[in-house]
Amino acid sequence: MKTLAKIFFALLLGVTLSHAAAFSKDAKFRNVKIHITADKPLTTGANVLEFSIKKGGKLVKDANVVVRAFMPAMPGMPAMESKVTAKALGNGTYSAKLNLAMGGTWQIHIFITPKTGRKYRVKTSLNI
Hints:
Layout: H1 2-20, E1 23-29, E2 32-38, E3 45-55, E4 58-59, E5 64-71, E6 80-85, E7 87-90, E8 93-100, E9 105-113, E10 120-127
Antiparallel strand pairs: 1-2, 2-3, 3-4, 3-8, 5-6, 5-9, 7-8, 9-10
């Protein structure tokens, strides 16, 4: 019985740690869907995010992707912004290193400019 209890708690701890170790979020605009992930939980400072972009169910490859994170001005605090061009990792996946200066809700705008076709902007938010 003690062995069974130890196995149960070890599995519970493993599942808890595996869910706490990553970040994942989906965002969409019309037929453009973006899956946002990070290897670590989001914190203040530098965060590396990966974006998997699909349009109409197909991966968007060879696009120019710009990510803008901003927090509007509030009483006693100026507006903050981090803007970066994402690097293509291949197969419709892009990586961007965003600097989020403080905790709170950050607005995220992802600008996708494919080699051919329309430019898209997908909006979402991140809470730190």
